[in-house]
Amino acid sequence: MAGFREYKIGSRIFGLALGGSMTITLFFPSINIASTASTDVALAKQLAVGHETGFNLDDPLLLGKNKPIVVNLKTDPKSGQALPAEQTVFVYPVGAPFPAGIIHPRILGTGVEELSVQQGHIEDARKDAGAVFAINKAVYNGKQVSYIDDLTTTKGWTPEDVMRVAKDEDVSHAGAGKTMFVREGCWWCHTLLPEETQDWQVFGAPPMQGDFNGESPTAFGSDRKAPDLLHVGSRNSSREWMMMHFFNPRLVQPHSIMPRFDYLWGEKDASGNKIDYAKWRAEYTDYREGKRVTPPEVPSYASNSEIRSLIDFMLSLK
Amino acid sequence: MFKYLMAKNEDIPPGASAVFFGFSAIIWFVIGTGLGSFNAAKLAFPDFVTGDMYFAFGHMRQVHVMAVIFGWISMAFAMAMMYITPALGNNKLWSEKLGIWNCMLWNIGLLVALTTLWAGITSGREYSDFPWPVDLYLATCVFIPLGVNVWMTILNRRTQGIYTTNWFFAAATFMVIIVFLVGNSPEFFHLTGLTEAYLTWWFAHNVLGLWITPVAAAIAYYTIPKITGNPLYSHRIGHLHFWSVVVFYSTPAAHHLMSAPLPEWLKSFASVEGVLILVPAIAFVSNIMLTMKGKWHMFVENVEVRFTITGCLMAIPLNMQGGFQQTRAINWYIHGTGWIVAHAHLALLGFSTFLEAAAVYLGLQTLMNRKLYSLKLANLHFWLLLIGFTTYWVSMTIAGLIQGAGKIYEVPYIDVVIAEHPYMIARWLGGTLVFFGNTLWLYNMWMTARKGTVIPQGRMPHELQYER
Q: Which of A6, A29, A253 is the closest to B263 by Cβ?
């Protein structure tokens, strides 16, 4: 065997070069990134979206299973009294995996971690019992810091209590919706990253370094064939517009090249009637060819349909 | 081929696994470019095959990308390695049986991987889209066996010293395993946030820089001297190329995220290293061009040389773009636009594909001892690829400049979409030409296997006259 005998120096330099390159491009940046504390955006995002929205063993087919539910709470779930102010809580039903920040509080960053553990008691949250979280503010080292509060421990609110008093219009399935966003490949055309150098006027402020702690996948996107969506919920908050746009984008924007996502409506509409897609498409073709004055009516989506989650996620992007 | 799966290693004819890989690569190229053409049609005509989850653009887009990267390009690399590595070591492939199994497991794995991706089961991370069980499979059944076969063949060589091509093969098979395992660590260990975003692009950058680019170049270091009969112009420049790839190409990952909130020092560092990519690029192109001295007639007469030199010439605009488009001043304008899509196709469909196609043409003829069936079809293949690619590249570059202008001058987005429409149609036409060219190639190679003139012992294919 000839081996590498003539290449002793070469193979050592190769190891050194590759090791050096990995130290600079992996180890050094990881120190920087790990020292960044979560912003409010990061806390809200990871609590709303949950553990993982790409492939994972809790939702292997990316159907939006085992995801948290965001509730705009108006009444105290224990006493039934009206709350002084509406409160956003993040409900993790039994079995829904917690986001990375709850499992490893260290990634929340200095201050947020300490408050979340000591005042928020997030380490007492248990997946097999479910939990309800909220974002609160407290003072840490003389500064106002947001932290995660485990309301199941601190107030005794269980997921069942909260869901009992929550009405459907107060509920957002943004976590399941982000799964749809990833599965349907929305991010192949719509970025989630307004650029630092421009975009301020049209697509809103670019994100901060601490806006992503605990999020996976971040799905920035690289190929912007369509508008950036990081702040789409601030630009357009109309569910009706979203509904028509997803069913057939050409209904609201004749020049759009977006695919139709009518299949996310599923079998049945909001009233439980079977959706006749063939009929709808035939009528739409008539409309396009001028044989009809108005396009056919877009069916209302069922409250447990995939499109509902996706629209919830869109509207959560403020 | 399947009969060799259970045969004894010494009963398998040398080159069997390279032939298996070669035909698999061409078939995946036909599939991959067919999908590309289909996707492009959807961007030009959004209601073309609509309302079905499995034919939605978002589901199909990355199936095209992964089919060409892991099917066509990487399998053509494996073919080239199993053919060239032993040829340069004056020995046989360490294990033909491992090669055959490697190829079969690769085809099965890729089929499963692309099917899951098609169904929407994705990690949601560009270029590392496959879910982690698939990643583990690809590492253990695709890249590690390939690496072992290449390294063992080099270690058991019967020559003094190692030729340039084999340094690259040995280093790249090692680096791709490291890159694959480290780059997918966000999925294995559930890393989140900016770390996840950065590692996604660390993987995407390095799989191109430490796998596709160096292996494609290494192939040219073999084919040009072998066919022209000229020795490589400079061994030293080859050294410069090799070391500058390892040092400069492994470091600029962050330049893919110039507008993301990564640490500023990292972006500046990556940007400077990114410009230094010109060092290996110039070393490589000049070395190959100078090797051609006195043999430029072969650029016209010989199919393999024509493919290789065209690929090398495309490396010039490729690296000029690559070196400068990632600097802040230019990235500002073209980031996220069709310009980048054009650049990516210049790298994979221009530069790299042309070099690999030459290796597959040469390797399959040599290993099967059959002269190419038809020069006419090969010429047609060349021109369909070149014209199709150029149409694609020009139209996407213009579309990218329109998008860039729209971005900077804050034009309402829909006006950009309207302005891009003619270029979307041109891109679809270009991609379709490439697809047709590849179907002709598959037919040509199939007929070569069946009807090509037998090459006498001790002769190279290019020493025989073309017959059709």
A: A29
